[in-house]
Amino acid sequence: MDSGAMCYMLSKQGYLSDRAGHWHPHLMFFLSQTDPVAWGAGLPGSPIFAFHDKWEDLTVFLVPVEQWSDGTADR
Length: 75
Description:
This protein has strands at about 5-10, 25-30, 50-55, 60-65.
């Protein structure tokens, strides 16, 4: 994955794992190792999540959105 890449994860068929199951529709942004706070990730009240991908040497930001690709609300 190149730094600056973006991914739309909006399908209801998305499946993380047997343990996690489905997650919310979201956008993903992949940046070179970046402090998550720079995007507000993990701050009180912020909807943005982030984690460091050691394999790809990237910081991955996840931004949940309110609707699935078919237009229905995330519940």
